[in-house]
Amino acid sequence: MNQVIKTTGLSKSYGKKQALEKLDLEIGAGRIVGLIGPNGAGKTTLLQSLLGLCVADGDIDVLGFDPRRERAKMLEQVCFIADTATLPRWMTVKQAIAYVAGVHPNFNEQRARDFLAKTKVPLNSRIRTLSKGMVTQVHLALVMAIDAKLLVLDEPTLGLDLLYRRTFYDALLNDYYDDDKTIIITTHQVEEIEHLLTDVMFIVDGDVVFDCDLDTFESRYRKVTVAGEQQSQAEALKPIGEIRALGGKQYIYEDADPQALQALGDVARASLAEVFVAKVQGGSQA
Ligand SMILES: Nc1ncnc2c1ncn2[C@@H]1O[C@H](COP(=O)(O)OP(=O)(O)OP(=O)(O)O)[C@@H](O)[C@H]1O
Predict the structure, then answer these.
(1) Which of 64, 234, 246, 282 could cross-link to 226 by cystine, CB 3.0-4.6 Å?
(2) Considering only CA atoms, which of 284, 236, 280 is closest in space to residue 261?
(3) Is the CB of 84 inside a 6 Å radius of any atom of ligand 1?
(4) ipTM value of the model?
(5) Is the CB of 93 under 6 A from ligand 1?
(6) How far is ligand 1, taken at its centre, from the CA of residue 209, in Å?
(7) Distances 85 to 32, 36, 37, 157 between C-alpha atoms, Å
């Protein structure tokens, strides 16, 4: 694996709060990794540690650099958008584009304009006159126009409407991504990114508790809709989660015998969100 990120024993505490707990992580080039976790699990702290934005303990290697000591060099090849996207409010959108063009060697001005052409953001508007979602659109356009080896997106679509969220993820996959780039995304809207991920990680209480590529995920997890009279057989096969459904129950299985599942009822793929809830909350879902 052509490795882009490797951490060993990554730990970070804020006073008594242990936000990251000896976290080991490896991400290879060309992967699109979804980092999924409950509120307060440590996702932002992990991304900030990788970007050198907070000082953590342990070994951290990002593109061959230690972000604590070689942050400036590392950032030449890394691009990120934080969940608190801010831009200078007095600038016009055009000026923001010109500014990034002036300071960033890998910025493609035309690309930024092309991304913005898919929005209703006027180039001559001052940032302070834009809605929150529009500011995020400008920020995303600036970030997506930078040719970086690693793109880190912390809740990139927070506050964006449903239509633009789709447009953004389409552009990310079709216009931005190629095999040389690695992308890490955190979001609570798991269903929106499921189709574009190559890998998924669940993070709980400051540690990665699940790390799986999507091909393996597709082959390991199933959801079966079971009518009332079959439920005791279904439970005997030890599902990892269950969902109450109209006229029966749906059970989530990990590595179960496909034939045994067929005998219980309708078998379908289990979604990332369903497996996440089953594994992290470990029980029934509404
Ligand atoms: N600056 C800080 N000072 C003190 N505690 C902090 C600070 N930043 C984060 N924490 C704590 O560290 C833990 C992890 O927070 P973090 O923001 O990394 O979680 P998250 O997974 O990104 O959460 P969310 O999904 O809610 O954004 C939480 O318990 C949080 O309260």
Answers:
(1) 234
(2) 236
(3) no
(4) 0.97
(5) no
(6) 17
(7) 21, 20, 20, 10
Our answer on whether the CB atom of 12 is closer than 6 Å to any ligand 1 atom is: no
Counting atoms of ligand 1 from 1, which one is nearest the CA of 12? 12
pLDDT in tens, 67-125: 999 999 998 899 887 655 678 889 999 999 999 999 888 899 999 999 999 889 999 99
pTM of the entire predicted model: 0.90
CA 20 – ligand 1 centroid, Å: 10
83 CB-near residues (< 8 Å, 6+ apart): 44, 154, 155, 158, 186
Q: If you take atom 29 of ligand 1, which residue's CA is the nearest one?
A: 40
Contact indicator for 180, 30 with CB cutoff of 8 Å: yes
Phi, psi for 146 (deg, rounded to 5): -100, 125
Task: Give yes or no for residue 19 CB within 6 A of ligand 1.
Answer: yes
For 188-195, which contacts have Cβ atoms below 8 Å and span 24 or more sequence positions?
188/155, 189/157, 189/165, 190/34, 190/36, 190/271, 190/272, 190/273, 190/276, 191/271, 191/272, 191/273, 192/157, 192/165, 192/166, 193/34, 193/169, 194/34, 194/271, 194/272, 194/273
145 pairs with which residues across the strands?
none
184 C-alpha to center of ligand 1: Å? 18
